[in-house]
Design goal:
alpha+beta; 5-stranded antiparallel sheet; disordered C terminus
Length: 142
């Protein structure tokens, strides 16, 4: 069995707020870890945070509003909205919707997207962005 070791990458960051860096350095010292480990932990948390909580531009809200209007009167299937509403499509299944989004992503044209299952199920939304899938809230049945 061959095990591939992943070597840490050296990165130079510019524009870091000096006050934040000093606080991070102090907290890392208290915890007995390096600043690099603290930054890795912070990046991990940030990457696991839903895009709608990170994106201050309101794109997530805009996508939900567009999806709501497009979904009116539809009782079946899955609505998928992409690129701030420029692209949208209705599919019979979630798998078909994900396949369409993966195609857009592989072509390099996917900026943001949202999947809204239609019908009697009460759902929030499933957002797909940056190549990762994020379930914002559990899909729930009424």
């Amino acid at each position: 069995m061959l095990i591939k070791m992943i070597m840490p990458k050296k990165v130079l960051l510019r524009g870091i707020d000096e006050r934040l860096y000093a606080e991070a350095k102090a907290r890392a010292a208290i915890l007995g870890i390096t600043v690099s480990e603290a930054v890795n932990r912070a990046l991990e948390v940030w990457l696991r945070t839903p895009l709608t909580e990170v994106d201050k531009s309101g794109n997530g809200r805009r996508l939900r509003e567009i999806a709501g209007k497009l979904a009116e009167g539809r009782e079946r299937g899955v609505l998928t909205v992409a690129n701030d509403g420029e692209l949208f499509a209705f599919f019979d299944s979630l798998e078909e919707a994900l396949e369409w989004l993966r195609k857009l992503y592989s072509e390099g044209v996917l900026k943001n997207s949202l999947i809204k299952p239609l019908g009697r199920r009460r759902v929030e939304y499933l957002e797909i962005g940056g190549g990762g899938d994020e379930l914002l809230r559990d899909l729930r049945r009424d």
